[in-house]
Write a structure and sequence with these properties.
Belongs to the short-chain dehydrogenases/reductases (SDR) family. With about 270 residues, the chain is an alpha/beta fold. The protein is built from eight helices and seven strands. The chain has one domain: NAD(P)-binding Rossmann-like Domain (Rossmann fold), CATH 3.40.50.
Length: about 270
């Protein structure tokens, strides 16, 4: 992350809550909103991670508080809502980003592992939307952006219930958009593709992985956490006022490459 940031959207006066903001994509989203003038609530299950992101924002001249919460526990979220109100007032923008991934084949995934992933990745999104969205609906103003994944529409093998959970996030987004639209609240999703983060640094450190994955993407490069943050901010901005229930895929075109694997005699490879 660069020390210097330029705001391309103005969120001055807005209160933005970002879950899972202690690192990776969530941290980038939180810092980017702060750089654009928002008052940011850094919510994470890790106190160390939340405080690190808060410090990063404050060092850059932004406004933020950190709070520790378990997104699967309604009482914990209620406390985060109260802390937000006390510090900054009502939440204007909620970014549901907290999530987990537990590897393993479906034939042997333990029921408790399955339940844990669904609890964090789906139930957590719903609880945060319910709690932080209550005042949005009352005020008839606000936006929710859910971070899903290309795994929602492209099944990822040996990832337990991860793909299932992200597919549920996309449907949750559409259902909330349908139910909350009449109250003036928009709900959209962002689905990242190949995005290196601190959580998968070791994976991309394996020789050849970055190059091999980049070749699969039409843009021939991996994405960045900033690419995801920019997309989230667009959906939370006035530019997306009439966008509701949409799943914005941020993968450099990766999701449209299935026909590349189909043999077609005489096909021009376009210089790949």
């Amino acid at each position: 992350m660069s020390a210097q940031r330029e705001a391309w959207l103005d969120f001055s006066g807005k209160t933005c809550v970002v879950t899972g903001a202690g690192g990776g994509i969530g941290q980038e989203i939180a810092v980017s909103f702060a750089a654009s003038g928002a008052k940011v609530v850094v919510l994470d299950h890790s106190r160390e991670g939340a405080e690190a992101t808060e410090k990063m924002i404050l060092d850059l001249g932004g406004t933020a508080i950190s709070t520790v919460a378990d997104v699967t526990d309604a009482a914990s979220i209620d406390r985060a809502v109260e802390r937000t109100k006390t510090a900054f007032g009502d939440c204007d923008i909620l970014v549901n980003n907290a999530g987990i991934l537990r590897f393993g084949p479906l034939e042997s995934v333990a029921p408790e592992t399955w339940d844990q992933t669904i609890a964090v990745n789906v139930k957590g999104y719903l609880l945060c939307a319910q709690r932080f969205g209550e005042r949005m609906r009352q005020r008839r103003s606000g936006t929710v952006v859910n971070v899903a994944s290309i795994a929602a529409t492209e099944p990822h093998p040996y990832c337990g219930s991860y793909s299932v959970s992200k597919a549920a996030v996309v449907m949750l987004t559409q259902q909330l958009a349908l139910e909350w639209g009449p109250s003036g609240v928009t709900v959209n999703a962002v689905s990242p593709g190949f995005i290196p983060t601190p959580l998968n640094t070791a994976f991309y450190a394996v020789p050849g992985v970055t190059e091999q994955r980049s070749k699969l993407v039409p843009l021939r490069s991996l994405g960045s956490t900033r690419d995801v943050a920019n997309s989230v901010m667009f959906l939370a901005s006035g530019f997306a006022r009439y966008v509701n229930g949409h799943n914005l895929v941020v993968d450099g075109g990766l999701s449209h490459t299935s026909m590349i694997h189909v043999p077609r005699p005489g096909y021009d490879d376009g210089g790949r």
